[in-house]
Each structure stands twice: as C-alpha cells, then as structure tokens.
Amino acid sequence: MFCSVFQKAVGLLVIPLYTRLMQPEQYGQYAVFLSYYSIVSVFTSLGLYNYVVNNGIIKYGDKKDAFVTSLAGLIICNTFIYVILYFIFQNQWLNFTGITTWIMAALFIECIFMPCYELWSAKLRFEYQYKPIIKTAICTCLLIPAISLPLIIVCEEKGAAAIWGRVIGYSIVGLFALVNLIKADNTLYKKSYWHYALKFNLPLLPHFLAIILLNSADKIMVERICGADKAGIYSLAFSLSLAFQFVNQAINASLVPYIYLKLKSKIYDGIKEISLSLLFVIACLNILLVLIAPEIIVILGTEEYKEACYIIPSVAITNILLFIFNLFVNIEYFYEENKYIPMVTVLCAVFNIGVNSIVIKQFGYLAAGYTTLATYLLYALGHCLLMMKACHKHKIDVKEIYDIRNIIKIVMSCIIISFCVLNIYDDGYLRTLIIFIIILYLIFYIKKIKSF
Questions:
Q1: N or C: which end of the chain has fewer CB within 10 A?
Q2: Integer Cα distance of 316 and 334 in angstroms
C-alpha cells in the first residue's frame, strides 16, 4: 500500500517541473490525453484487471496463474481489434478528437502494456508477494521522469513529449510484467477463462465507461467550453485528486484480499473496524489537503494556476466518497451482484455531463468541481443501497460489515469543515493557527488515536 502511494507521490512531485516547462495549453494537451486514454482503455481492456481478476483467483485456485495470463491474452487480442477499427475510421476520429495518429499510437501501446502490469500486480497482491511490486514501483518512479523530462526539454511539442515519455516508461514496465505472467503460465488463451471473464465483465462495461466519464468528462468539457488553458488549470487541481485516488486504490487493492477471504469464511469480525479506521485516515489527509491548498498550488504550478486552489475542497470530499464507494462495491462484486451496478454509474455520469454543460457556461470552469462532488454523493448513496440489497439477498446483516451511521458522520463533518476553510483561503495566518491547533490535539490524544 505504502509503495503504491510512494509511486504516485513521485509522479506528483514532477508536476511542478511539468507546469514550468510547459505552457498551460501544452499541459492541458497532456491532461486531455490521459482522459482519452482512460476512456479508450475501457474498451480495449474491458476492465479485466479490475474485480474479475480477484474473483477468478478465488474461483480457479491452483490454476490462477493460467487464468491471469489468459486475461492478458484477451486484452492484447481485443486491443488489436480496436487498432484495426481505428485505421478504418481514422479521419472521423481525428475530426472528433483532434488527436493525431502518432498520439493514438502512443495511446494503443499503453493500452496493451499498462493492463498487463495491473494484472500482474493484482495477482501478486492477492498472494502477498510485495517485494516484486516494490522493486517494480521504484523502477517506474525513476524511469518515467528520467525519460519524460529530457524529451520535454529538447522537443518543441512539449505536450506530445510528455505523453511519449509516460508511454515509453509504462511500456517497459508492462512488458516486464507480461513476460513474468507468461513465465508463470503461458496460457494466453483458454476458452473457459475467456468466457467466464467476458460473462462477468461485459455487463459491467457501461459501469467502467461511466466511471471514466465521471473522472474525465469535466476536463474535456472545460477544454471545449473554456479553452485548453483553463483545462490545464482545472487539471492541475485534479492531479491532486488523482494522487489521493491512487492512495484510495492502493489501500483498496490491499484491502480486497482481506475482505474477500473474510466473506468467503463468513467470519466478518474486523472488517467494520479496519474500514472505519482507514476512512478516518483518508478523511484526515484530505482535510489537511484543503487547509494547505493555496500553498500546494503555488508549489505545483505558477501564478497562472492560482485559481486551482478553489477547486480543492470539492476534490477532497470527492476523494473521501470514492473510498466509501470502494468499500461498498467490494461487497457487490464478491457476491457477483453486478446486475444494477452499471445503471447507477451511467445515471450519475449522465447527471454529471448534463449539469456540467449548464454550470460551466453559466458560472465558469471552477463550478465543474462542485458538480462532480454532487455527482459522487449520489454515486456513493446509490452503491450503498446496492450493497445493502446484496447483503439482504445473501442473508447478511450490514451492521456486521460496515458502520453506516459513523461513515455518514465522517462525510458530513468533512463537508462542513472543507467549505468553512474555503472562506479563509486569503488568511494564511488563520489557517496556520488551525493546523497548529490540530497538531496539538493529535499530540494530546496520541494514545487514543493510536489505539483507534
């Protein structure tokens, strides 16, 4: 978990270099590429490195190596189908997105190798083989900046240089992961594995796509409505969100095997306590982010990016809600109660796009952050209801798994605190005093907090 957080933290640390080496328009190009990659990779990977890999590892037991390698084979095969489709409809795609063939080549390369790395990591996490993941993560941390920064410095097209630097780095890591998967078992194709994976994941495709739209549509809409420079400023604020989302994902990736094994054994003690403790930690980290948002934006960007700090409170609450969503959806996926998951996610994505199309034009690009917050409130609520439905169907008392009442209390407290802090962003002394008081409180109650 800490290794994954460290890996993304290094990625966050290079942002000040990116924002100083690139104009907002160029950084916006890089950010929009990441958004399009997120969307296209849903279709090429089918989301196979998500929950189905965990379910398959439990289902196939001793054959898990063959199962995971076959998922890599399915992803590679499917990606080449989309490469062929791209060349057939190349002009239409260029007119719609403005993305050149060279950038699309980079996108498809990452669509092949990055999911292989995710599959390999998921298998090792489930087996608690942390050492290979740590070594690979450290190499990735060093490799991508080492490739990207020289390219950005020497190239005139700095946005494209940043994109290719990222793709080359992840491709090297992904190729290493693919080789290791094949070494463990070279079963790139087995009909029963492909059938199980497709049966599980194809109905979830609208869900995965809607998640990406929730994460990416606002940036694309800001670029289209307000321009690439505003998209760059907006994306800088949400790069902090991505950093914390990676924390969420790292914690969840480590938590999923624990929860799955508890649910399989029908011994639920510990799930509620650990989940609530982790939520409390996530909430504290995000409140700290809100308190020091103006200073972080100054460090990460230049004077041109200073408006980004006003998006941070909405970003922080969204991060907390995403962690809560993961807690709920883990239960839904374990019991394979995924019938209604796409419906909730698609409705939230439609809500987000519809409201953004109005508020961005009416109130400017900063309003998109608060529309996203409202969307994720609905999102977490919808999956809470689905999780309760799954527990009721399998005759499990929800109170044995999660403390819903205290989860709501933590979220409401964070919302109130965040929007109170928003009004004192111009008063650095007052925010410093609040941070000092919090530190004193933590020191005074350190024993109680450690116990919790």
A1: C
A2: 28
